[in-house]
Backbone:
């Protein structure tokens, strides 16, 4: 699916145009909407996009970085564990070569930006294949939510009818959240499964 001209401009779309990353949008969509082993998670797509972006920026500055160098820089920019000495060396080296490190730091993206680009800007949707393990887990949790909601509603109605509870017309809402103590991030269960993981190793941008 091609980019929608009328859609709200996204960070990823802007970067694709500004840095002439031709074909990257189609590639991201194809990998995300694929099924089975060909499917890429939003987190993997964000990492790949950042590698493409960093590689292009360094080449534009006249550098010829290796894949491992690009990976190290991406890890540094996205908050992965890189030693303080190595961070300082990377910044100094890039600045000597004429790379605007602060601008590059602002441009790397998170999986949330990739999700917004694919869903809201390109109108893409990922439909999980039948039997997908993640889908099976999501369905099981949704069924449990529905069961808990039904039981809670029945019990509340019984209490209200016996005058033990004063309550008008109501709806029972059951939310299942996940909190990761390592990266201090919170997700709804469906959001977490869709993203393919939490924010460990990432910083908000």
Residues:
């Amino acid at each position: 699916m091609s980019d929608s001209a009328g859609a709200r401009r996204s960070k990823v779309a802007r970067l694709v145009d500004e840095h002439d990353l031709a074909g990257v949008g189609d590639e991201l969509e194809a990998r995300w909407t694929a099924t089975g082993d060909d499917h890429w998670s939003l987190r993997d797509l964000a990492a790949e996009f950042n590698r493409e972006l960093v590689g292009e920026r360094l080449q534009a500055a006249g550098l010829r970085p290796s894949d491992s160098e690009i990976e190290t820089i991406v890890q540094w920019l996205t908050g992965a564990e890189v030693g303080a000495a190595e961070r300082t060396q990377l910044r100094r080296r890039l600045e000597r070569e004429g790379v605007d490190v602060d601008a590059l730091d602002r441009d790397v993206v998170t999986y949330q930006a990739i999700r917004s680009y694919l869903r809201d800007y390109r109108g893409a949707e990922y439909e999980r294949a039948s039997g997908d393990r993640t889908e099976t887990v999501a369905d099981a949790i949704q069924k449990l939510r529905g069961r808990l909601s039904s039981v809670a509603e029945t019990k509340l109605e019984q209490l209200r009818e016996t005058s033990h509870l004063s309550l008008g017309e109501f709806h029972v809402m059951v939310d299942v959240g996940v909190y990761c103590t390592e990266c201090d991030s919170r997700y709804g269960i469906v959001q977490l499964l869709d993203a393919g993981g939490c924010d460990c190793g990432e910083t908000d941008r």
User: Anything to note?
Assistant: Residues 1-7 have pLDDT under 50 and may be disordered.
